[in-house]
């Protein structure tokens, strides 16, 4: 055996080898492209029999298996191939196939790496640049997108989509002049050659080019004049006439040509007289914003032109100061609506209740006087909808007795109108009578079983009353229930976010209720076990209580797991929204809609800050922060409990009860499963609640994505503080306090609560890092100058007295935070919470008593 010279050879990717194997591999590749995956695998198996290290065949077989649904096996083959590749030193085809696999498994950054490697390794398939730019757009690397779009455009100049996509990339990167030139070049090339079918795309590109010119012009009057000139010259080819007029008006305003701007705004009002925005901009153009006399004259004139439109009648109500005149105008606006029986009358004037609170009294007097003049028999429509208005009015003012009085009048007159039941239920909800409210909505629903709106409202009310089974039963009337006993799977499939979040919150409330009951029952058991020699009756009671506790423990875990599972489903839905953008990066260019594409990009940058996502994140944080705290505080206690469980004597009765409980768990799965068994085997969310790293799970599910997109002015600083507190990052906790104080002021009660909590964390005997504690103390001294730093380590200092003396309580959350984090003052804080909650509505009081204390 000869020796190798020069040491071991570097590890390189095997080449295809013989010409016959090359031919077979290429044939398999063609079969993959034509979606004949099984035949492709059969050919590849022949190659791999001869050379099991053939990287190209391993990767292609992995991709074939992936599209056959055998994803785990596909991953094994691809990983096997990757282990044999040194860096990205593989054939261009191999790198391309790996890139396709990575894209299919949503590993976009890896896919970009391998597509780029394919090009670097000599691939002449320039279509890769298109796929590369799409993936770079998906991950937000727009500098790289510009280069990829340019390369693709250079190789395929015959398609308008490539010119548009290149211009969009230049625009996003701030190269406005170059983007305009790119679009202009194609316009010159295509002049006189466009057919009728291409005119829509042409119109979109023209207005998009004008958009770029307008944005780049800023306040430069000469450049704005060029933008206006371009708009006028191409106006005949632009289909979106509203966009043309709005752009013209905007340019005139920027140039200071207010007369022309006012003419354009009058034209816009003529085209759409119900758009409040145009009226507001017309006032600005006429420079009468601060002259109520001229504004009043303007709207009187406009009302004669558009007598059936809302804005000319409503807008004067927002600025008229003379009470007599205002009363006259309110009568003129509200009474015709009530005579016609318009249900939305209160919704129309509700903004006035908020912006000009004194108007409520004037309207109350007007409407009650009008009601007294109505005969319920002669004018039934006016009567019932006036009662409906007054119900809304008193509900807004939180006069629940009066609200109930008027809704009962409406119901006694016309008991078949569904809207009245909805409003009555709403009053009962505010009174904290959630079960009664749900019952009233159900009564209304029975009047019209085909109405989806009342069905949805009823479901929501039952969920708020924690009656989940009834809510699911009613929701399932409008879902596809082919392979399941209810509509939960279908509601997840069609991504009904409101239902999923409401159900998650209902499960969380039930979890808290059952957990409290579990604590009480455990205390009873401890009391019974204190007797070392129990008699027969006591032994029977102990056995019965132990059985109930097993059932209760499972119920607590079930509700906790299902709640977290539903919150996690919201994260999954929004991840899908994010992934759905991938196809549109190329689709919008092909369809010639660059303006819509840029709107999608802006929307995509805020997906994980949408209200529903944030609501789910806050709900999940309560559970996962609680799981983290339990792991930290109760490690020894958990160990002892497990020891006690293991030492319990498993007699036949206990085994039988456990077997029955397990059977019930299995039977119940089909009623609560959100996905098929293939998609999700953890129906009850056990893996989520048993996680040893709940903070990491929370970050992966929600917080990392949220934190990446949210702006400082909209950030949930309290959640930010709580998350970093548990991570031990006190400097970031300080940052959260600083940002909150800048937004709401240093004197706000939440700032006081968070500062006290951070100060307690920085005590000498706390378990936090010493350097982090020093940073926190220094920051508190700088940010909150009046904070008593010197009292941090004083065990006698009364922090609650300091809080009450220096901060006025505006928000219940400040007290809840102190109750959770500040030990030793529980009774004092609970008293404060009770005193504060006395000012709240009955419903809010119930929530505080049941779920906060």
From TrEMBL:
<dbReference type="GO" id="GO:0004596">
    <property type="term" value="F:protein-N-terminal amino-acid acetyltransferase activity"/>
</dbReference>
<dbReference type="GO" id="GO:0031415">
    <property type="term" value="C:NatA complex"/>
</dbReference>
<dbReference type="InterPro" id="IPR011990">
    <property type="entry name" value="TPR-like_helical_dom_sf"/>
</dbReference>
<dbReference type="GO" id="GO:0043022">
    <property type="term" value="F:ribosome binding"/>
</dbReference>
<dbReference type="InterPro" id="IPR021183">
    <property type="entry name" value="NatA_aux_su"/>
</dbReference>
<keyword id="KW-0175">Coiled coil</keyword>
<dbReference type="Pfam" id="PF12569">
    <property type="entry name" value="NatA_aux_su"/>
</dbReference>
<protein>
    <recommendedName>
        <fullName>N-terminal acetyltransferase A complex subunit NAT1</fullName>
    </recommendedName>
</protein>
<feature type="repeat" description="TPR">
    <location>
        <begin position="242"/>
        <end position="275"/>
    </location>
</feature>
<feature type="coiled-coil region">
    <location>
        <begin position="535"/>
        <end position="562"/>
    </location>
</feature>
<dbReference type="InterPro" id="IPR019734">
    <property type="entry name" value="TPR_rpt"/>
</dbReference>
<keyword id="KW-0802">TPR repeat</keyword>
<feature type="coiled-coil region">
    <location>
        <begin position="644"/>
        <end position="671"/>
    </location>
</feature>
<keyword id="KW-0677">Repeat</keyword>
């Amino acid at each position: 055996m000869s020796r190798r010279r020069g040491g071991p050879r570097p590890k390189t990717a095997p080449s295809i080898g013989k010409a016959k194997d090359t031919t077979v591999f290429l044939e398999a590749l063609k079969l993959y492209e034509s979606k004949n995956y099984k035949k492709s695998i059969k050919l590849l198996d022949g190659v791999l029999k001869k050379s099991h290290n053939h990287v190209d065949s391993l990767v292609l077989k992995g991709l074939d298996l992936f599209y056959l649904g055998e994803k785990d096996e596909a991953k094994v083959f691809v990983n096997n191939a990757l282990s044999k590749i040194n860096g990205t030193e593989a054939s261009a085809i191999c790198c391309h196939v790996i890139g396709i696999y990575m894209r299919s498994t949503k590993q976009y950054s890896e896919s970009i790496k391998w597509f780029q490697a394919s090009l670097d390794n000599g691939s002449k398939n320039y279509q890769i640049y298109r796929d590369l730019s799409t993936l770079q757009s998906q991950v937000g690397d727009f500098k790289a997108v510009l280069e990829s779009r340019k390369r693709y455009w250079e190789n395929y100049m015959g398609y308008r989509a490539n010119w548009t996509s290149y211009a969009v990339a230049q625009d996003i990167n701030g190269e406005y002049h170059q983007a305009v030139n790119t679009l202009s070049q194609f316009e010159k090339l295509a002049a006189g050659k466009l057919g009728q079918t291409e005119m829509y795309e042409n119109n979109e590109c023209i207005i998009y080019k004008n958009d770029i010119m307008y944005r780049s012009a800023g306040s430069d009057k000469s450049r704005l004049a060029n933008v206006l000139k371009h708009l006028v010259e191409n106006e005949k080819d632009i289909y979106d006439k509203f966009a043309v007029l709005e752009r013209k008006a905007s340019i005139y305003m920027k140039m200071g040509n207010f007369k022309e701007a006012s003419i354009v705004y009058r034209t816009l009002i003529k085209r759409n007289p119900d758009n409040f925005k145009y009226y507001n901009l017309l006032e600005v153009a006429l420079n009468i914003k601060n002259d109520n006399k001229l504004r009043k004259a303007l709207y009187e004139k406009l009302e004669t032109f558009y007598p059936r439109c809302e804005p000319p009648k409503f807008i004067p109500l927002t600025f008229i100061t003379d009470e007599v005149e205002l009363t006259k105008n309110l009568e003129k606006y509200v009474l015709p609506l009530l005579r016609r029986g318009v249900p939305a009358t209160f919704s129309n004037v509700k903004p006035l209740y908020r912006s000009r609170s004194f108007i409520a009294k004037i309207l109350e007097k007007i409407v009650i006087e009008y009601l007294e003049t109505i005969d319920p028999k002669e004018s039934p429509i006016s009567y019932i909808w006036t009662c409906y208005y007054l119900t809304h009015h008193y509900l807004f003012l939180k006069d629940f007795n009066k609200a109930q009085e008027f809704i009962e009048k409406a119901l006694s007159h016309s008991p078949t109108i569904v809207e009245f039941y909805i409003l009555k239920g709403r009053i009962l909800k505010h009174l904290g009578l959630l079960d009664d409210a749900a019952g009233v909505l159900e009564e209304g629903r029975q009047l019209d079983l085909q109405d989806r709106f009342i069905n949805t409202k009823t479901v929501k009310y039952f969920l708020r009353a924690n009656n989940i089974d009834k809510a699911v039963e009613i929701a399932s009337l409008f879902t596809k229930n082919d392979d399941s006993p209810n509509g939960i799977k279908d509601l997840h499939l069609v991504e009904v976010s409101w239902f999923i979040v409401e159900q998650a919150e209902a499960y969380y409330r039930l979890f808290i209720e059952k957990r409290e009951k579990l604590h009480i029952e455990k205390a009873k058991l401890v009391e019974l076990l204190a007797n070392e020699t129990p008699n027969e009756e006591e032994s029977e009671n102990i056995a019965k209580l132990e059985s109930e506790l097993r059932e209760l423990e499972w119920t607590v875990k079930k509700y906790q797991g299902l709640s977290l599972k539903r919150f996690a489903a919201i994260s999954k839905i929004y991840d899908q929204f994010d992934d759905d953008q991938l196809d549109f990066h190329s689709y919008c260019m092909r369809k010639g809609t660059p303006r819509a594409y840029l709107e999608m990009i802006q929307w995509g940058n805020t997906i994980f800050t949408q209200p529903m996502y944030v609501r789910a994140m806050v709900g999940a944080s309560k559970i996962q922060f609680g799981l983290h705290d339990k792991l930290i505080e109760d490690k020894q206690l958990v160990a002892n409990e497990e020891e006690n469980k293991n030492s319990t004597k498993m007699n036949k009765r206990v085994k039988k009860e456990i077997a029955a409980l397990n059977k019930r768990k299995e039977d119940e799965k089909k009623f609560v499963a959100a996905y098929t068994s293939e998609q999700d085997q953890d129906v009850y969310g056990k893996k989520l609640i048993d996680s040893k790293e709940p903070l990491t799970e929370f970050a992966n599910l929600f917080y990392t994505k949220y934190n990446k997109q949210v702006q400082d002015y909209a950030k949930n600083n309290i959640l930010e503080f709580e998350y970093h507190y548990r991570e031990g990052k006190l400097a970031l906790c300080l940052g959260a306090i600083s940002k909150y104080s800048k937004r709401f002021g240093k004197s706000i009660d939440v700032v006081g609560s968070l500062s006290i909590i951070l100060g307690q964390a920085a005590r000498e005997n706390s378990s936090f890092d010493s350097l982090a504690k020093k940073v926190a103390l220094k920051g508190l001294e700088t940010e909150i100058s009046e904070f008593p730093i010197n009292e941090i380590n004083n065990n006698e200092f009364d922090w609650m007295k300091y809080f009450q003396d220096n901060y006025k309580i505006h928000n219940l959350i400040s007290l809840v935070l102190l109750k959770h984090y500040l030990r030793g003052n529980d009774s004092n804080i609970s008293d404060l919470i009770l005193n504060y909650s006395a000012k709240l509505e009955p419903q809010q009081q119930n929530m505080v008593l049941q779920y906060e204390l």
